[in-house]
């Protein structure tokens, strides 16, 4: 028995070493900053937005981060979102003349109960639909709430309308929403749509750029570029699946430019 025991003792260091290697991914190690990450690195889901932005190649001087969500994200645990560095969120409210995002009221009701996260609502603009009826649809759904942030209109499809017609219809929508809310809507789009279809006619509006390149490629002659949606594959606690990630490009005070001060 003793010989057998001595044999076990002889192999004990090797067994301990192998056990450490196998279980090492479960151990946490402190980084120089004091933040703890696993030995196999935190999953993207656990990283704060700032870390995801830097990993994307973003400018570390941009420190105000946010997300935009819709029905695609399903049920959201906002208490967990509040534990992250998300500073603002935009919710999809409406699309065209009649559609309401099925999750909009649920999200809005939840956000109205907290006072940490700034939020706003957006409309997806259908270029071939009546712009007044689109504005009415948006206002009807949003009117029962008090969003902190500017109304936003997502305009990115032409639906065979020429640029002048799109501009005319977008102005009708914008004017009606501004008259009702007291705030000029922010415009969300991508570079080529701005350059070719709406351009400087709307350069007095705050502009939100969608561009997933490593480096932001600003449209020509845009004056008020304030937000950059740099990814549609982000990860945030409390949200299942990918989510759009956004950053304020005007420094720490950029949120002041997108507040709807009534």
UniProtKB/TrEMBL annotation:
Any single biological process term in GO: peptidoglycan catabolic process
GO molecular function (one): lysozyme activity
Keywords, alphabetical: Glycosidase, Hydrolase
Kinase listed as a keyword: no
PROSITE patterns in alphabetical order: GLYCOSYL_HYDROL_F25_2
InterPro entries associated with the record: GH (IPR017853), Glyco_hydro_25 (IPR002053), Glyco_hydro_fam25_subgr (IPR018077)
Pfam families, per the entry: Glyco_hydro_25
Family note: Belongs to the glycosyl hydrolase 25 family.
Name the record gives this protein: Glycoside hydrolase family 25
Species of the source: Marinomonas mediterranea (strain ATCC 700492 / JCM 21426 / NBRC 103028 / MMB-1)
